[in-house]
Amino acid sequence: MYNQFGSKESLIVEALEECGRRSMQSLKAFVDKSRSPRGKVRAIFRWHDEWFHRPGFEGCVFNNVAGECHDGNSEIRLVVLRYKRDREDYIASVLAQEGIASHKKLATQIMLLIEGATVMAYAAGRRDSAVKAWEAFEPSLT
């Protein structure tokens, strides 16, 4: 494999980038099925709920890899950071397209809730964490 990628870090970077592409495509397709503004926002949480309930769920690969990579300037950590920013930007775009005020602030709040829910679903076995995160966030939409 090192003939193809040159180094372990390059292999991990490529794997993360492919995982990120697939994850974002899946999330976008899921959200796009909803018609109402509230439905689109809720779909973000529902997508995560379905993910948490899949057999073999092992948390977020980006979080897991970042926890093992202690060099904050490595290409691996930069890929993780880009992925997280891209997700937050996507969420902000969903909110903005639906005419929701403070879309950037709310996107940050959603990311914090989803990230916490992901950790709770994996580390604490709380597979209902995305539902609980939605329940915490939903009043923000009124």
TrEMBL record:
<dbReference type="InterPro" id="IPR036271">
    <property type="entry name" value="Tet_transcr_reg_TetR-rel_C_sf"/>
</dbReference>
<protein>
    <recommendedName>
        <fullName>Transcriptional regulator LmrA/YxaF-like C-terminal domain-containing protein</fullName>
    </recommendedName>
</protein>
<keyword id="KW-0805">Transcription regulation</keyword>
<dbReference type="InterPro" id="IPR054156">
    <property type="entry name" value="YxaF_TetR_C"/>
</dbReference>
<feature type="domain" description="Transcriptional regulator LmrA/YxaF-like C-terminal">
    <location>
        <begin position="40"/>
        <end position="125"/>
    </location>
</feature>
<dbReference type="Pfam" id="PF21993">
    <property type="entry name" value="TetR_C_13_2"/>
</dbReference>
<keyword id="KW-0804">Transcription</keyword>
